[in-house]
Amino acid sequence: MPYFSIQTSKPLEAAAAKDLTKKSSAFAAELLGKPEAYVMTALKPGTAMSFAGSRAPAAFIEVKSIGLPEAQCGAFAEKISAFIDTELGIGPDRVFIDFVDLPRTRFAWNGKTFA
Prior knowledge:
Mean pLDDT: 96
Helix content: 25-40%
Shape: globular
Radius of gyration: 14 Å
Low-confidence stretches: none
C-alpha cells in the first residue's frame, strides 16, 4: 500500500534507475514499517524541473500510505532527504516531499479497497 515516487531533474542510465527503484522499495518499507511486498516505487529521472529559479538538480518525492503517521513526517523527511542526497547527490535544500495519508476507502489493490 505504500507508494514512494521520485521525480528528479537528474538524468540516470537505465541500470542505475532500476537499481534505485529497488533500493527505494527496501528503504520505503523500512522507513514506514510496512512489508516490502506491498510497496510500489516509481522513478522519473531527467524531468525538466526548476526550483527557486535554478535548474540545478532537484527532486520531488511523493510518499503515500494508509496510516501514515503525521507525527513522524518530520523524522521521515530527514531520512528521505539523506537517502536522496546519498543516492542522487541532491541536497535537502533542493528536495520537496509530499506526504499523503490515504484513507482506506480511497485506495485499492487487487480489485478492492482496503476498507
